[in-house]
Amino acid sequence: xxxxxxHNCGELSLKNxxxxxxxxxWINKKRDHGxxxxxxxxxxxxxxxxxxxxxxxxxKNVEKLPLETVIQIEGKVLERDTDTVNKILKTGEIEVxxxxxxxxxxxxxxxxxxxxxxxxxxxxxxxxxxxxxxRNKIHSNIVLRSKIISFIRSEMQKYGFLExxxxxxxSSSPEGARDFLVPSRLNPGKFYALPQAPQQxxxxxxxxxxxxxxxxxxxxxxxxxxxxxxxxEFYQLDIEMSFVEQEDVFKIVEGLFxxxxxxxxxxxxLHEKFPRIPYDEAMLKYGSDKPDLRNPLIISxxxxxxxxxxxxxxxxxxxxxxGSIVRSILTKNTSEKPRSFFDGIDKWAKEEGSSGLAYFxxxxxxxxxxxGPVGKFFSEECLKEIMKLTNAEVGDTIFMSCGKKIDVEKLxxxxxxxxxxxxxxIDENIFSFCWVVDYPIFEIDEITxxxxxxxxxxxxxxxxxxxxxxxxxxxxxxxxYDIVCNGIELxxxxxxxxxxxxxxxxxxxxxxxxxxxxxxxxxxxNALSYGAPPHxxxxxxxxxxxxxxxxxxxxxxxxxxxxNQNAQDLMMNAPSDVDDNQLKELNISKRKK
Length: 593
Description:
Number of strands: 24
Number of helices: 16
Distance between the termini: 61 Å
Structural class: alpha+beta
Largest sheet: 8 strands, mixed
Strand order of the largest sheet: 6-9-10-24-23-22-19-12
Strand content: 15-25%
Shape: globular
Helix content: 25-40%
């Protein structure tokens, strides 16, 4: 028996009635009822209500103890009165009458409340994260994270995968985000890089003859923080498989996610077979390759309307004649919405940096007409064609944006979410997964106007690999895919290009010489030249998966020790200065500002 406790604080029940027990934990809350003092004792496992009578000689000492003092109590388990049972607590049918107590650790004055999950200043929460983690909601989130990771490991092993560890100190990569660099003491002037992902290593594992690999892998990227992305470091479920096609990867991942989300959430899964949406279709219908399929609003291209002579909307017509596009969002049965609704959407669009969102509602008295600021510019025949292109009906509203393709896609993607929120169209009790597939291999750089890789440069092109037509690179599609849930990208993946000769050709299109490829990817190219199996994989983000299952909007709520927006660890004061002796040993000198 432990000298500190016979039971934990989430364990006692009526079966322990009249037993004398020991508990240890933190004082979570106190309620002084004059003759009785109620004290909630908390540990990792839960809460137990303890009580002490004023007649007890230790009453005054216990009464003075501040919240979060660590104590041990010894006492007798009693059944609570029926009207005082707490059905929320596992221990809610009993209470412990304190007979003895001992202070195990004192506490200073608290910088934030522990017994409540109320919102508190992020700076304080991160500086005192060890206190923040005592709070019920975030403590539960971190426990959930641990259980999710354990479940994933178990499931991957059932699928025949083995877990291998890849290096943390590696070489810098010219692709992706900025690297974190680590100076080498034994190789002056040279640097390691922390891995942005184990991408090359997991492919090398396949080349080495291992068939199914996974790892809960730490990844390091010098990126800015976002609500769904931690600055500095994150974890992903890294997966790679040999002798597979795209559908083989999908089968494993869909099975894993169905089991995972059914086990850890009561929310409904909209699709048991995840829809496959081509990239071009996603960008047209949703304005994004991260579509939230809970949102029923669809974007349509109506550019051709503004080439008609019976359209008098000259601003859009002039822009279209100079290469702009027009796309629209249809909202059902909204023609009777108050003017303030439409003006609010238009105002929001201007705050997003656009010129606003034009709109009209379709009406039918004796003939089709359009109500709204720009409705008068469209003839009846024109309205009929718009209705055909957008599947609109009388009583519906059309929102429109005109401009460069990239700008229109961005605005309408955000507008789609904004309008759906205003109309309460999104069911928060649903998980909706999909695959976005058929990504282009190349795109035009907006600044240099040169061809560059659009995503992963190691993806296998679609088509006849032995007779691939490279004459129009922008038409080439890759066996590359993203898995998305509720508008959140969980991962990108691909079937890999395992043919060195083809890799040289594709890199050449993006402006990389054979010599550059050999220098930057020497380990990969060399390995592939010794007989590599067709292989592919994916790497869903652990943090985002937990965020979805915990129903949190910010990734810091599911990360044990996160950094702030400026990539600073306020608790450990990182990054920090180092002394001159350390720098000298590494052959590094600081440049004065």
